[in-house]
Amino acid sequence: MTATIDEAVRVGVYRFPTPEPEADGTLRWEATTAVTVEIDAGGQTGLGWTYSGGATAAIVREVLAPVLAGRSPFDIGDCRIRMQRACRNLGTAAVVAHALSAVDIALWDLKARLLDVPLSRLFGAVRPATPVYGSGGFTTLTDDELGEQIDGWLSAGCRDVKIKIGEDRGERTDRDLERVSFANGLLGDRAHLMVDANGAYSTALARRVGTELDRHGVIWFEEPVTSDDPSGLALLRAALRCDVTAGEYVYRHYDAAALIGSVDCLQLDVTRCGGYSGFVECAALAAAHGLDISAHCAPALHAPIVSSFAHLRHVEWFIDHSRLEPLLADGVPEVRDGALAAGRGAGHGMRLAGSAGKYSVEGAGHR
Ligand SMILES: [Mg+2]
């Protein structure tokens, strides 16, 4: 089969307001922005996206799309190397990695559609569906609102639930621990509690908070300190009983390698770590070190790939994304009995939704 990528890569920017202002330990936000990429070849269209900002769209339009034009959509490795090389002077991490990830996802979707197979078949599966964990529990929520989120996750069959701590950059540890105790009380023995500090604490404060978390039976302490500090994470990993985890800012396999030995579970995000190609690469690196992985956010995009890895624990069913993904795309796979299965149909099975138009901030313009 021959097909070449059309020159016109379509890029869209969509802003989805949150119902209320939200915050974790180190950031506040009132909306989530998705940047979509559509790539055409051989009469088919591949769709990818990332959660980022308008700068990502400019990188796709100005730097990546010209590299792709005329290439084979089957040679994703070739496209990937050429795009990375084109970004040398921009750097290949952060916003550029978001752009590379969205394009890689669109290319894999396109390839599977050209072959007329589900993407999950292309990757292969070791289980029919993958457990999700409920995630949200923002520091801005009232106890009643937190209780509602937790009830929702429990009724959906989640066996693990994650809340945010580290409020006001670690200034409110008393409230952090009160919320942990409150959430634990609601969960009882129905689900395990996980927490995410988003790098809010110093190493010493994280050790003291972590000791209390151990006392509460919390099983997962995500980014107790910034993930830029692997030695701080390693120190906490050695001191605490709960798992210490990080990885949502892994952009390249080098970043994943830097966290080996410092975490108990490596988090990977297809919308940041180089798309499906980067996910496979980093997952292999983790497997080679006996390290479990977990998918960070973007559940709809993770659905086709997460069932491929025996050492993958779960997918983060992040409330902001599970709320907006059905507005952005048609065909979003649903959580059933606490697990996520890949969508049916060719590719990842999703198309840009008509309803997305009203959230567009610059139109789904052509480059
Ligand atoms: Mg996190």
Automatic annotation (TrEMBL):
SMART domains, alphabetized: MR_MLE
UniProt cofactor(s): Mg(2+)
Protein name as annotated: L-talarate/galactarate dehydratase
InterPro entries, sorted: Enolase-like_C_sf, Enolase-like_N, Enolase_C-like, Mandel_Rmase/mucon_lact_enz_CS, Mandelate_racemase_C, Mandelate_racemase_N_dom, RHMD-like
GO molecular function: hydro-lyase activity; magnesium ion binding
Enzymatic class: lyase
Record Pfam families: MR_MLE_C, MR_MLE_N
Alphabetical GO biological process terms: amino acid catabolic process; carbohydrate catabolic process
